[in-house]
Design a protein that fits this description.
The protein is an alpha/beta fold and about 375 residues long. It contains 14 helices and 13 strands. It folds into 2 domains: about 180 residues, Rossmann fold, CATH 3.40.50.2000; about 170 residues, Rossmann fold (3-Layer(aba) Sandwich). The longest helix is centred in the C-terminal third of the chain and has 18 residues.
């Protein structure tokens, strides 16, 4: 690749997720940041009808394709056709849903170097090494994820961690507790905790509900809001009803108002059993909200026990209850933890830092 071509690097991003949160949101952060650098010409392959396909980028050209998931061979052909038409200098695969496999094959058959960003710490089978060996770089969003994926990447030239980021402007909104109280029917004197996750077992909401049973036995001025959607919604509703917690624990469904909600709650409780990083913890930090979480995956890179939050072992219902009770009775400590987390996130998890690290990686790969 010529020196002149390196100055204007053509990058093709692949993000096939349906919704604009989590990894897809991180893709918009990265593309927008790199759009400000005239040294990059960017393209994005996404699924037709996905939320990111409607996103208005300043300079990045979007290429929606019909895509139905991992086994959609025609969708894969459409992806390959776009790659061949654009002829990028580098491919960056962001999502799974088959994109990591199709991206690896595109790199293999075109000779275009490719980067794969790995966002989850799920254990993969031993055959995935054949997928990863087609990538020039496999980047993890946390050291926790890197520890898992690196076992399959012995032949990958570039490996490492580039942390996800949070939009500092979006998650620095003013407090409006009356709005929150009115919207979710919360009494004025209540201590408010919240969880923002899919309703699935590994996110630990059932443990939080059971912990609330113990908290409410001592303090009845506590409201717990559970935001999300997923396969466990009916089970969680039954659990809440069986312990007569309807007044204090509310299933609120999925919300797009996270940035507006966070400044108005007292504590985010995220008792996950597995987590690639935990973007909600970054968002809580930017909102100066105290956090209770679990030492799994990449979470310890955000939460330091008794410094930037409180840690409780996964599945420790009694420990979750004690941590909530402690912060409920220690408002100064709650504020101190929220302020410390804010500073940590602001310093180490900025969009600028993430974009710079990817920019350096892209240039390194382009030079061969």
């Amino acid at each position: 690749m010529s020196k002149e071509h390196c100055v204007n690097l053509k990058v093709l991003h692949i993000e096939l997720g349906r919704h604009l949160y989590g990894g897809a949101k991180q893709v918009t952060y990265l593309i927008e940041a790199l759009d400000k650098d005239n040294g990059f010409i960017q393209h994005l392959i996404c699924a037709t009808g996905s939320e990111i396909s409607e996103y208005q980028f300043d300079r990045c050209t979007t290429h929606p394709i019909r895509y139905r998931g991992d086994t959609d061979l025609m969708g894969a052909k459409r992806l390959f056709d776009v790659v061949k038409r654009i002829k990028p200098d580098l491919i960056h695969v962001h999502s799974r849903r088959g994109a990591d496999i199709w991206g690896a094959l595109a790199a293999k058959f075109t000779g275009i170097p490719a980067v794969c960003t790995r966002r989850v710490d799920n254990t993969e089978n031993r055959f995935v090494r054949y997928k990863y060996q087609e990538y020039e770089a496999v980047i993890s969003i946390s050291d926790g994820v890197h520890k898992v994926v690196s076992k399959h990447c012995t032949n990958v030239k570039y490996q490492g961690t580039i942390h996800s980021a949070v939009d500092q402007d979006e998650y620095a909104q003013a407090t409006n507790r009356q709005w929150l109280n009115n919207k979710f029917n919360i009494p004025q004197d209540h201590f408010v905790i919240a969880n923002f996750s899919q309703y699935i077992p590994r996110k630990g909401q059932a443990d939080l509900v059971l912990a609330m049973r113990d908290v409410i036995a001592k303090f009845d001025n506590v409201t717990c809001l559970l935001f999300g959607k997923g396969s466990q919604e009916k089970n969680y509703r039954s659990l809440i009803e069986s312990h007569d917690l309807d007044t204090n624990v509310k299933l609120c469904g999925f919300t797009k108002e996270v940035a507006h909600i966070l400044p108005n709650i007292d504590v985010v409780v995220h008792p996950a059993y597995a987590e690639g990083l935990g973007v909600i913890l970054l968002q809580a930090g930017m909102s100066k909200c105290a956090v209770i979480s679990s030492p799994v995956g990449g979470i310890p890179e955000i939460i330091k026990h008794q410094e930037t939050g409180l840690m409780v072992a996964p599945g420790d219902v009694e420990g979750i209850a004690k941590a909530i009770t402690f912060l409920l009775t220690q408002p100064k400590k709650t504020k101190k933890l929220g302020d410390a987390l804010h500073q940590h996130v602001k310093t180490h998890f900025s969009i600028k830092n993430m974009a710079h690290e990817y920019s350096v990686l892209y240039r390194k790969i382009a030079k061969g």
